[in-house]
Amino acid sequence: MERRPLGSSGLDVRPIGLGCMPLSLEGRPAEDEAVRVLCGALDAGFNFLDTADVYCLDDGDLGHNERLLARALAEWAGDTARIVIATKGGLTRPDGAWVPRGAPEHLQAACEASLAALGLETIPLYQLHAPDPYVPFAESVGALARLREAGKIQHVGLSNVSVAQIEAARKIVPVVSVQNRCNPFDRDAFLDGVLLECEERGLAFIAFSPVGGHFGRVRVAEDPTLQAVAARHDATPQQVALAWLLCTSSCLIPIPGASRLASAQGSAAALDLALTDADLAELDQAFPTS
User: Fold this and answer.
1) Phi/psi at 65 (nearest 5 deg)?
2) Catalytic annotation on 55?
3) Buried b vs exposed e over 162-197: b needs ≥16 C-beta within 10 Å?
4) Is 119:134 a contact under the CB 8 Å cutoff?
5) Taking CA 74 as the corner, what is the angle to CA 69 and CA 79, rounded to the nearest 5 degrees?
6) pLDDT recorded at residue 228
7) Cα(239)–Cα(223) distance, rounded to whole angstroms?
8) What is the helix (H) or strand (E) element at residue 213, kind and residue range?
9) Domains of the chain
């Protein structure tokens, strides 16, 4: 089975990871069903699971998604030693809003809470969820550096960041990954230099919302170019979007979300979709990256 290095971490993951957020937001499935989806995704070959402490309904529900993962891993019959968990800290959910909170003391407490929720002694990949405009970026990154030194986390990642912030963070602590939004209709990572920076620095680029996310998935499903390519391969437009992203960069790891097992299995099947040169030319023309 093909693997893709998670930056310079020494960890190898399947080229498509699973974004677990939909299992914990409004409209989420019942807990037993969510665990069934996660176990089924692991059976389908996913070995990179992305979560966050704030994948929940509000501040009273913090850690919901992480606890789901912990239960799924405890109940799954497979080899959990090969599973890589990535979580994040640096946001809060007051009344369901998404509010940056990058103060070092918050990140310290959030990491400890994530360790407890996940049932881990060390988090394989801990990511700053987003820069806090009211906290110096270096202070937030410095907190992650100290967590790494203390053995609470193995590797540091960043999310929702610019090239300048990546460069600033790398002066403070080794960074192995960057997680920004990227899909056929959200191509800023190609245009603002972030993906190129990851390629040049040996970082993994983790693409969230790779098939449009909650609000953009219909646009992907109804796009005529994605539909035309999908029809030629007996695939879905979402699978074509994932396969196209995989072809754009060897460091890119898309993490489609799923709240249903069929969705997770469909995303896993995108790895078997071999786009032709003609397909790629058609897609590149429809979704230019430069």
Assistant:
1) -65, -40
2) yes
3) bbebbebbbebbebbbbbbbbbbebbebbeeebbbb
4) no
5) 100
6) 98
7) 13
8) helix 213-222
9) 4-223+249-273 (3.20.20.100)
Going by their DSSP bridges, the two strands 12-13 and 4-5 should be labelled as antiparallel
Given a cut of 50, the residues of the chain with pLDDT beneath it are 1
d(CA 67, CA 71): 6
Dihedral sign, Cα of residue 213, residue 217, residue 219, residue 225: positive
> For the purposes of burial, counting CB atoms within 10 Å of the CB of 35, is it exposed (0-12), middle (13-18) or buried (19 or more)?
buried
In the chain, the amino acid numbered 144 is: L
One-character DSSP codes across 153-183: EEEEEEES--HHHHHHHHTTS-EEEEEEE-B
Structure-block tokens of residue 284: 């590149």
Residue tagged 């030319």 (tokens): 281
- Which are the contacts of 234, defined by CB distance < 8 A and separation ≥ 6? none
| Catalytic position from the list 9, 21, 53, 55 | 55
Gyration radius of the chain's alpha carbons: 18
